[in-house]
């Protein structure tokens, strides 16, 4: 099988101006700017936005608020971003899958990801993990494979939402193992974790930042990471590559975007501010403890990354038998 390495991923926010301004591109400093987040407060996307906002505010010389607009797996916030004025007052932080995966999984999108949004910077990367309840008695990945092949009731797996990268990672895992895994979508990671800990579902594919606490508490067992190497936060958990399935390397990411048409001077100033924040040692540590790695980029690098992974997801979905859009 052709190896497909997918950085699932993530996306959007930020801004721009230095306090001293960028010539005619400078926006009205009397008004506040906003970072749109398509998920509730308290989650990892919200965390990243709030870590970025203070330094961004200094760069802009005006308040920067985090504007949570949860709904439709983050698509509501993207719709709002793409219809906002490209004047440096609106940015969005979004998972990369909203641009690279959703066009292949949802029947209706109100945005064209590479036309309606201007890339600013990658923000963070993270790993996905496959986990089971500790009460299941499954000790390792081999046990899990044996379980799903022997008992159809064990083929269900949870994720934080339908159509997400976690959802597709689970389907791709099943196809690779020769077992039709059945997805159970929840309204957010917290609901999926509760179901997993309570053994309401036999397994889950989630971001490792959402699994670490319950793993350390001994309530769940993380069997594998969808990566080429182990993660320092879960050193005893093997990577999917070392288990013999390198084609299943799937990483998540978040990135900042602005409405299309935002002036390049504003995008470059925003990118510089984001990179400075993400290079701060204290910020890096907070992200690490949440299961994320700081990873800024240039707008050009983010654009190339998104387009490449758009094609990767297309290839994966074409390989899934009888897949239908949602």
From TrEMBL:
Pfam families: TctC (PF03401). Keywords: Signal. InterPro entries: BUG, Bug_dom1. Residues 1-27 form the signal peptide. Belongs to the UPF0065 (bug) family. PANTHER family: BLR1237 PROTEIN, TRICARBOXYLATE-BINDING PROTEIN. This is Tripartite tricarboxylate transporter substrate-binding protein. It comes from Alcaligenes nematophilus.
């Amino acid at each position: 099988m052709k190896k497909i390495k997918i950085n699932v991923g993530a996306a959007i926010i930020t801004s721009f101006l230095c306090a001293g301004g960028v010539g005619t591109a400078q926006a009205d400093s009397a008004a506040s700017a906003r970072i749109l987040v398509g998920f509730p407060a308290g989650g990892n996307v919200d965390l990243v936005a709030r870590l970025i906002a203070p330094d961004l505010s200094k760069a802009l010389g005006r308040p920067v608020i985090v504007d949570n607009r949860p709904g439709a797996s983050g698509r509501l916030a993207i719709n709002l971003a793409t219809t906002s004025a490209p004047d440096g007052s609106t940015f969005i932080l979004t998972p990369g899958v909203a641009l690279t995966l959703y066009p292949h999984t949802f029947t209706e999108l109100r945005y064209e990801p590479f036309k309606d949004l201007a890339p600013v910077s990658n923000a963070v990367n993270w790993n996905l993990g496959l986990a089971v309840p500790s009460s299941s008695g499954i000790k390792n990945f081999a046990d899990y494979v044996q379980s799903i092949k022997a008992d159809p009731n064990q083929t269900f797996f949870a994720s934080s939402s339908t159509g997400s990268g976690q959802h597709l990672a689970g389907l791709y895992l099943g196809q690779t193992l020769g077992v039709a895994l059945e997805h159970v979508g929840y309204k957010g990671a917290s609901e999926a974790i509760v179901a997993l800990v309570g053994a309401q579902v036999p397994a889950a594919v989630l971001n490792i930042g959402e699994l670490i606490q319950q793993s350390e508490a001994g309530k769940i067992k993380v069997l594998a990471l969808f990566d080429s190497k182990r993660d320092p936060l879960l050193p005893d958990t093997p990577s999917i590559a070392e288990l013999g399935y390198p084609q299943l390397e799937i990483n998540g990411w978040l990135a900042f975007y602005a409405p299309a048409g935002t002036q390049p001077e504003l995008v470059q100033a925003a990118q510089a501010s984001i990179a400075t924040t993400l290079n701060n040692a204290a910020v890096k540590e907070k992200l690490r403890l949440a299961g994320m790695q700081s990873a800024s980029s240039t707008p050009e690098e983010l654009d190339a990354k998104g387009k490449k992974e758009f094609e990767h997801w297309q290839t994966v979905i074409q390989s899934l038998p009888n897949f239908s859009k949602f």
